[in-house]
Amino acid sequence: MNQDWSECVINDPYRTTMTNMADIARRFANVMFSFYAFSAFFLSIGEHLLQSMDDASQLNRSRELPIKMEFPFDVSRSPIFECFLIGQFLYDLVIAFVCGLLNALLVALVLHVSGQIDIMQQDLVEISNGKYDNSTFLLVIKNLIYKHQRIITLSENIENLYTHLALMQVLWNTLVMCCTGFVIIIIVNSGEDTANLIKSVSYYIAIVMEVFVYCFAGEFLTAKSKSIGDAIYESLWYNLPPSDSRIVLFMMLRCQKRLTITAGRFIDLTLEGFTSIMKASVSYVSVLNAMY
To answer: What is the pTM for the complete model shown?
Structure first.
């Protein structure tokens, strides 16, 4: 990645492309951190703020911490309760920021790969426009092959970094979405406890968003990898000398193996996979609701 940014310093089109991708990654990180902070707030302090607005609820219900804990003393008295409540909020906030950081890092890495693919496509367009003569063509093709190999290596590193983490996220989040959805149905049917409903819905949305980020990143990476082959095919390679066109055809052949992110190296993270996860969780919720 350092070499990629070093090339951007001496090339304005490269720098513009990569800067745009970095800006998108920064915006996404801000959105993710804000959303997770919002969810952590409703999972801890938000519920008690809503309960405090209802005087009847405060009279009939003893105060409980969001994270169930046992102490040898009464924690429902002020200011002990408020201190523990703030501590649990900070704990939820740290966990939420760690999850947001992992998601933001994945998106930033995928966008970096996307920027390099866009740069490679720009170079292929310049080849099609006849910008390079025969003396420099082989050198340009060599640089493109080297850049393509760097893209493949970086994608494989992303896959190695996130494949096992994605597997745990898919399995665990499917189970959590099932249980949380069942809790939401129970709360809605009871017609009471608005605070718990808001807390459960915010948590459910956060879990769904986390799975969606992984699946969308895999889908986006796959689509961008396919665009390399399309750009090579549209680069007027058939007008090149036979010896040079064969080199381009080998690049096109390598693009047939798409880049992707998998969960445990056997489940492709795509939007189709995301719909399958949602269908599975909804099916489990239906079974639990029928048994309830």
So the answer is: 0.86
CA torsion sign for 154, 156, 160, 164 is positive
Could you report the per-residue pLDDT of 24-80, keeping only the tens digit for each? 999 999 999 998 888 888 777 776 776 666 544 444 456 777 777 788 888 878 788
